[in-house]
Amino acid sequence: MIRKKWGVLLVVHGSPDNRGNLHALEAYARLKERMGDRVPMALGFIEHATPSVDESLDLLAREVEGVALVPFLLFDAGHSKSDMSAYIRRAQRLHPDLEIIRDWAFGTDQQIVTLLLEILPPVDPAIRETLVLVGRGSLDANANASLFYQGRRLWERRKGSLPLFSFISVTDPRLSDLLESLEPDRQDRLVLLPYFLFEGVLMDRIRNLGAGYREKKNFSGEIAVTPPFGDHPAFLDHVADRIARLLLTGRTPMPKWPVIYADGPVEHLTLTERES
Questions:
Q1: Model pLDDT for residues 201-255, shown as the tens digit of each residue
Q2: What distance in Å separates the CA atoms of residue 69 and residue 242, rounded to the nearest whole number?
Q3: Would you say 218 and 184 are in contact if contact means Cβ atoms under 8 Å apart?
Q4: Which domains does the chain have, with CATH numbers?
Q5: What is the number of alpha carbons within 13 Å of residue 51 lying toward its C-beta?
Q6: DSSP track, the chain
Q7: What is the pTM of this model?
Q8: What is the pLDDT of residue 75?
Q9: What average pLDDT does the segment 134-151 reach?
Q10: Residue 255's pLDDT is what?
Q11: What backbone phi and psi angles, to 5 degrees, belong to 43?
């Protein structure tokens, strides 16, 4: 068990749309309520908003002996793989006596499949449904593959028709192209499931594409767009559990997919040791 005085820094992406940042702050406040007074907590944004991760890490380092970095992210792409290590290296230069451990992204956890089952409408054999999972899209192939991984796990528990997969930016298949290919008379209900934590411009784009499909294709059925789930109670409970486990054990399981940095694969990671 870790016996030092530890703090937790939640690392959030940040958005050029302040609605997303406010949504993240609301989720953070609810997470702090779940954690209680057990450990000092702070939040830092990777980009687009303040305080930055480095700023929050510097402030937290003044009151604790160790910091647990927790990426409030869905997939382990560049921000989780490379940026987190850069934050750790910088903090260790400035605070050589500070011990740092880290977690990984949450997006391939089974608990997210459980909460998706809560926010999705139930399968109805009398309704022809097309379910489309929508990811942000990444240059990281494993991050993109993680959306397919979770979609398959969702289907195993929900059944119904097999889901379709798309991305809103960066990579293919694009949601706009997929919707263009869907014949309106082939479904009674179109469900768009954004695999997103927070509100923002991309959520708006998904909703607008759904509305555009109705108008362009003269679709008379139901169109449902599920909300982002970064503040969902089940998700925050799971994050709190992950943080508690990290603080208790000093380590966390490796991600489902290999962790690849710009300079090659990582052969091992001992999370109770400092990254160098």
A1: 999 999 999 999 999 999 999 999 999 999 999 999 999 999 999 998 887 666 5
A2: 12
A3: yes
A4: 6-107+231-265 (3.40.50.1400), 110-225 (3.40.50.1400)
A5: 13
A6: ---S-EEEEEEE---SSHHHHHHHHHHHHHHHHHHTTSS-EEEEESSSSSSBHHHHHHHHHTT-SEEEEEE--SS-SHIIIIIHHHHHHHHHHH-TT-EEEE---STT-HHHHHHHHHHSPPP-TTS-EEEEEEE---S-HHHHHHHHHHHHHHHHHH-SSPPEEEESSSSSSBHHHHHHH--GGG-SEEEEEE--SS-SHHHHHHHHHHHHHHHHHT--SEEEEPPP-TT-HHHHHHHHHHHHHHHHHS--PPPSS--EETTEE-----TTSPP-
A7: 0.87
A8: 86
A9: 93
A10: 59
A11: -125, 140
What is the mean pLDDT of the segment spanning 95-112? Answer: 92
Q: Which long-range contacts (CB under 8 A, 24 or more apart) does 181-188 make?
A: 182/130, 182/213, 182/217, 183/217, 184/217, 184/218, 184/219, 184/220, 184/221, 186/128, 186/130, 187/128, 187/129, 187/130, 187/221, 188/127, 188/128, 188/129, 188/221, 188/222
**pLDDT given at position 190:** 98
pLDDT in tens, 40-85: 999 999 999 999 999 999 999 999 999 999 999 998 876 777 788 8
User: What is the pLDDT at residue 130?
Assistant: 98
Q: How far is Cα 208 from Cα 14, in angstroms, rounded to an integer?
A: 22
Say if residues 160 and 123 touch (Cβ distance below 8 Å). Answer: yes
Match 């987190």 to its residue by tokens.
84
Q: At what angle do helices 233-249 and 110-119 cross, to 10 degrees?
A: 170
Length of the chain, in residues: 276
Q: What is the pLDDT of residue 85?
A: 86
